[in-house]
Write a structure and sequence with these properties.
The protein is α/β, with parallel strands linked by helices and 314 residues long. It has ten helices and twelve strands. The strands form three sheets. Strands 10-9-11-1-12 form a five-stranded parallel β-sheet, with helices on both faces. A four-stranded parallel β-sheet has the order 3-2-4-5.
Length: 314
């Protein structure tokens, strides 16, 4: 039987960013150095495949420190944690390793600087996301006001409109965030901006890559977890850019290929916490059904590498 032709537009960059790669390395190197079990507070990154792979090596994922024995190492996830978490670990004299992405850490430090300078911080982000909880948890209650939409900006009450600063979750939609920032600047002209953009390079690059294929693709598959903010944003970006048939899938087994009947061009990308092996799995699954031609669409090259904690170096 002759297979129908399918062109796959494969975005580059895609998949793991430097912060995710560092976080996973921290868990793996901690297991090698200290032996199993090593505990991790919350999912190290938002990807079930990654979490299950680390569990198989001896990592134990817990919601809070009270589930961790005093004599075992604990790792804080890439999303960052409130200040109360390392404070509790120090009180218990635990060995802890902080896998917070350095770019999330930058947002934490800027929020602290604004607070020290007497400014109230308006944080753009998604309520309940671990990164948002971690950022808000750097400062006392009331020091940070969370907004999710342009409508939120119009409703919020602040202490002093002349003493405000804004910060942003690192994994948001660039375009939607720009609309919220414009609303903030209209309402609070004196608001202080970050010294450098808060939305991280990997989020921005992956969204630009999706934009580059959205008008050419009949459908786009984004590899990523339903809990992954940056992966969900990629689906939204694809749809806003004109590809209505964009969907988030965790891996090849989740794809409804019948829903893709009749397509000639399929875009494939992966969120910053999705490993390349899952992309390869989807391409292999497509080859079983189509005569596949893969075209890699390169919009940026990434070379950033973050150092590991000193306790794991060498």
């Amino acid at each position: 039987m002759t297979l129908p032709p399918l062109t796959i537009l494969l975005t580059a960059p895609r998949g793991f960013c430097a912060g995710v790669d560092r976080a996973i390395q921290i868990v793996e190197k901690a297991l090698a150095r200290f032996g199993a079990p090593v505990y991790v507070r919350h999912e190290i990154v938002h990807n079930r495949f990654v979490v299950e792979s680390l569990e198989a090596k001896g990592a134990v994922f817990v919601d809070e420190l009270d589930k961790v024995p005093d004599d075992r190492p604990v790792i804080f996830s890439a999303h960052g944690v409130p200040k109360s978490v390392p404070a509790e670990a120090e009180r218990r004299r635990m060995l802890y390793l902080d896998a917070t992405c350095p770019l999330v850490g930058k947002v934490h430090r800027e929020a602290e600087r604004h607070y020290t300078d007497g400014r109230q911080v308006i944080l753009i982000g998604h309520a309940g996301h671990p990164e948002v909880i971690g950022t808000m948890g750097q400062l006392p209650d009331g020091a940070v006001v969370l907004v999710e939409t342009v409508e939120d900006v119009e409703r919020i009450e602040v202490r002093d409109p002349r003493n405000l600063a804004h910060a942003t979750q690192t994994t948001l939609s660039v375009d939607e965030t720009a609309d919220i920032l414009a609303a903030l600047q209209r309402r609070f002209p004196a608001i202080t901006a970050p010294r450098k953009e808060d939305i991280c390079y990997a989020t921005t690059n992956r969204q630009q890559a999706v934009k580059a294929i959205a008008t050419r693709a009949d459908a786009i598959l984004v590899l990523g977890s339903p809990t992954s903010s940056n992966s969900k944003r990629l689906v939204e970006v694809a749809k806003r850019q004109g590809c209505a048939r964009a969907a988030l899938v965790e891996r090849a087994a989740d794809i409804d290929w019948t829903a893709l009947d009749g397509i000639a061009t399929l875009g494939i990308t992966a969120g910053a916490s999705a490993p390349e092996v899952l992309v390869e799995e989807v391409i292999s699954s497509a080859r079983a059904r189509y005569a596949v031609t893969v075209e890699e669409v390169v919009t940026a090259r990434e070379h950033l590498v973050f150092k590991l904690p000193k306790a794991l170096e060498g």
